[in-house]
Design goal:
34% helix; single chain; 8 helices; mainly alpha; 4 strands; two-stranded antiparallel ribbon; 5% strand
């Protein structure tokens, strides 16, 4: 249902003004799209959650300028990952979390792995480990202790694709082992997955 060379606008027509960005550009971080986080830091009411759909509506509203034309160079992009997740949701007609559960986690027996949004869609998660960060006084504190205005840990909790997958060491081992087989991905696709991208100037993205 998807092809690497499909235009992103085929699935997200709201972003047609952003030109010839393909699924492959998003996958290889060569789209040139600016990071959505900066857009929301500047313009968003931090009392509301951001979602993947919200990213699209805000890009349409504010029209942030691209950093370069598609394929010109490599630049890591959280925006690309978020848009890829949204494409999956629109094509599969189910949530990103449900899609990953049905297509990856359950087939591989990764029973302790899921998309978990602790603030946007809270639920009880057994043995969950909370992350800690350093505050302005160099103290280690739980991320939630920084308050709702801290963008990393609260109002971006509705976004999936560039994060929100929670797992365990055992499950990550299952994931790693599966990549040495064709249980999940066939040999032809694996060759593409682990192949370096190439920019318009011939530079490899590694």
């Amino acid at each position: 249902m998807l092809a690497y060379d499909d235009l992103t606008s085929k699935y997200i027509p709201e972003l047609s003004d952003y030109g010839n960005i393909t699924v492959k550009h998003l996958l290889q971080h060569t789209s040139g799209l600016p990071d959505y986080m900066d857009l929301f830091i500047e313009n968003w009411d931090k009392g509301h959650f951001v979602t993947n759909e919200t990213i699209v509506t805000e890009f349409v509203k504010h029209k942030p300028v691209v950093h370069f034309q598609p394929g010109e160079r490599y630049e890591y992009s959280n925006t690309g990952y978020a848009l890829l997740a949204l494409i999956i949701e629109r094509v599969a007609k189910e949530s990103f979390g449900t899609f990953l559960k049905n297509k990856i986690f359950d087939p591989l027996g990764m029973s302790n792995t899921s998309v978990y949004q602790s603030r946007y869609a809270p639920r009880v998660l057994k043995n969950y480990t909370v992350g800690y960060v350093t505050d302005s006084l160099d103290n280690k504190v739980a991320a939630d202790g920084l308050g709702k205005d801290h963008y990393y840990y609260y109002y971006l909790d509705g976004v999936v694709g560039d994060g929100m997958v929670n797992s365990t060491l055992d499950d990550l081992f299952k994931w790693d082992r599966a990549l040495y087989t064709e249980q999940l991905v066939n040999a032809t696709d694996k060759e593409l997955i682990f192949q370096s991208g190439v920019t318009a100037t011939g530079e490899k993205t590694d």
